[in-house]
Amino acid sequence: MNSIYHFFKNLVENKKSFIPVDKLENFPFDNRLLACKNIGIFPDLAIKLNKDKSIFSGGELVELKDSQSYSVSSFNSTIPAGTKDISKFISGENSRIYRQMEKAGNDIYSLPVRGVFYLVRGKKNNNCKVCLLHGSFFETVRVDDLISKSFMQVLEDNLKESDTELNQNIKDVIHKLFSEQENFSTVRNVEKASVKLRFRIMTEVKAEGNILNSNKYPEIIDNSLNFILPCHNDDEEKEIINKFNLVFNKKERKSFNIFKIKHHLNGYFIIFQNVL
Q: Are the C-beta atoms of residues 23 and 66 closer than 8 Å to each other?
């Protein structure tokens, strides 16, 4: 069986490697769980799909974020989100990700929308914090709104000097044109230009979204491994606990501290914490 829960169990079983390993990509991941591994290209890792999806669908995407401080390293090109459409980053049947997933025996498009997780490690003063967290921890505003409102700020900042205001029709057009990253990230070829231009987005995490920040999230203690999932109601919590109990036996569960925290911008998350 493959799932982000089984992936987390692999992390727990090898947790002593988190402190000494120089690069997070060198952690001894269980390759039997993985459909692909492409460090530096989103996703860095992908969990295999399960043919029987009654409990665990599998197929989750994992990006590695490594830092030599208690800050989350920036996201280059790919904006963090809780889910992503797999067709957005598989360019075709010749792409490396496609070939790896197909070789792993996965019917890739049988699960078109995938859950996204980030494996975040931060080091500070010989201490270490590791978090495997759902992408919704970072996605407190929809990605399309984040992009379009950022572009709107650029326009409004430049129009202030001329006392010009944008009417609603223009705002609606801007939102439509600049809500999808693909609309402006394509390489542009301008006539007579000797270079091509491509806009890239870099996303930086604010303090409210930095799970490693001791002032904002003191519950994430030094030298701990944490599995963090959105938990906004009782039914969601029961489902999470049930899946966790299916993967970890009673003896293993005793080593965890299980609690909830309130995100400063995005409700409650449940945490399974294990000491490194």
A: yes
b/e string for 91-129 if b means 16 or more Cβ within 10 A? Answer: eeeeeebbebbeebebebeebeebbbbbbbbbbeeeebb
Residue type, 136: S
- Helix crossing, 234-247 with 4-13: angle to 10°? 50
CA distance 243 to 56: 8
Distance CA 229, CA 79 (A): 19
CA–CA distance, 157 with 254 (Å, rounded to integer): 54
What tens digit of pLDDT does each residue of 161-219 get?
A: 777 777 777 777 766 666 666 666 678 888 888 988 877 778 899 999 999 999 999 99
Pairing of strands 267-275, 224-230: antiparallel
d(Cα 192, Cα 197) in Å, to the nearest integer?
13
pLDDT, residue 83, reads 95
Rama region for 192: left / alpha / beta (φ>0; ψ in -120 to 50; rest): left
Asked if residue 257 lies in contact with residue 273, where contact means CB atoms within 8 angstroms, the answer is yes
Q: What is the pLDDT of residue 27?
A: 97
Compute the Cα dihedral for 208, 209, 210, 214 and give only its sign. positive
Are 266 and 140 spatial neighbours (Cβ–Cβ below 8 Å)?
A: yes
Backbone angles phi, psi at 38, to 5 degrees: -140, 85
* CA dist., res. 238 & res. 92, Å (int): 39
